[in-house]
Amino acid sequence: MDRICFYLAHFRINFVGLFCPLAELERRERFVRVRAAGTTRSQIEQVHAHQIYALKVDSAIESAQEIAATIKAYHERVLWPQAFRRIRNEKIIIDYQ
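^ that's the sequence the OP posted. Answer follows.
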């Protein structure tokens, strides 16, 4: 991870947290039926464990187009995101087992 952070810290990369209430995620899980039932509930905490987001959006209240516009506006406004530098400097461990 140190090597990844070293190289990627020099690029404009934003971590965007895409959130949605668990009840809505479970509704979508049942509707789409791509995953085994209960997968969403079992993974929700792990997915957002590191919480190093430059920006957080909620897909339950914003459309995909609105979220894309929000991300684009943020990326245009913030010249040098700090996520990789922060991970490297604070020795944050991200475990995606």
